[in-house]
Structures are given as structure tokens and as C-alpha cells.
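Hello,

Our lab assistant flagged a job as stuck in the queue for most of the afternoon. It eventually completed. Since we weren't sure the result was trustworthy after the delay, we are filing this so someone can double-check. Below is the sequence as submitted and the structure that was eventually returned. Let us know if re-running is recommended.
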Amino acid sequence: MLLFLSLGLAADPVAGRGVYEANCTACHGLVGDGKGPAALALKVKPTDFTAATWWSTRTDADVGASIRAGKPGTPMAAFSQLSEAEVADMVAYLRSLSKVP
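-- returned structure --
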């Protein structure tokens, strides 16, 4: 994602929604609240991307790195097959879900 952003290319949250829906809704839910159908079976609950407080301590690069590499010790799998542009687009989409006060 850093390469994509360092080239000055803008991330597209509309495209990111499609990437998110294809890869993330089972755990994170259709609206990104961490309440997807698979979340019920997980001991470590998926992130609620609608929580502004969660976003307040994370950069886009942090979120992109978690998407690419996964989160050890959690059910969050690595999505290394996604392109840098897809990851950047998805991060832009996820950030758009935040309920900023």
C-alpha cells in the first residue's frame, strides 16, 4: 500500500467496497461492524470498522499491513494475494465506514 500511495495515486473506496465484500464480510459483516456470520464462532472477535475510536489509533498503512500479513494470534488471515491498489482501495472503504462523532 505504501508504494501505491507513494506514487500519488488516490485510493478508490467504491472499488474497495467490492474487494471488501468478496473477502471480508463473513467475519467483519456486510456493514463492517464485526458481526459477520462467522464471527459467532470466533474467540477473538473481528474488528468493528464503524468504531471511530478504533480508527483514532491506526494509520492507513497499519490497516493495510494487517490486511496483507494477517494478525498472528487471531483469526485474521493474510490476504497477500491482493494487489497494492486493492488493499489501498479497501482501506479507503473501511475508513469510510467509521462513525466519526
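-- support follow-up --
The delay was a queue issue, not a problem with the job. The result is valid. DSSP finds six helices and no strands in the chain. Residues 2-96 form a domain with the Immunoglobulin-like fold (CATH 2.60.40.420).
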